[in-house]
Amino acid sequence: MNEAFKKLIFEIKYTPSPAFENVKVLEAKLNDKKVFSIKFASDYLIPYVEMEEFLKCLNKNFKYKASPYFEVAVVSPKLNEVKKYVS
What we know:
Strand content: 25-35%
Oligomer: single chain
Distance between the termini: 29 Å
Radius of gyration: 12 Å
Order of helices and strands: HEEEHEE
Structural class: alpha+beta
Strand order of the largest sheet: 1-2-3-4-5
Helix content: 10-25%
């Protein structure tokens, strides 16, 4: 796991999304910039002990843009499915 991901672990926070019912938004910031945002279609929260697995999932499935930002994705509560989120 690279250093950027290690730093993100400690800065991740959950916020409710006012646009959707029962949707949580997972955000992480690096150097005061949002580097990824993920919408969860349930109230499921990832326990800290599962964070490493979650980050592996990000590394495998997320595509980097030209900027240091990640694409937004919908992640299932069980981490067995990652889909691009098209806004």
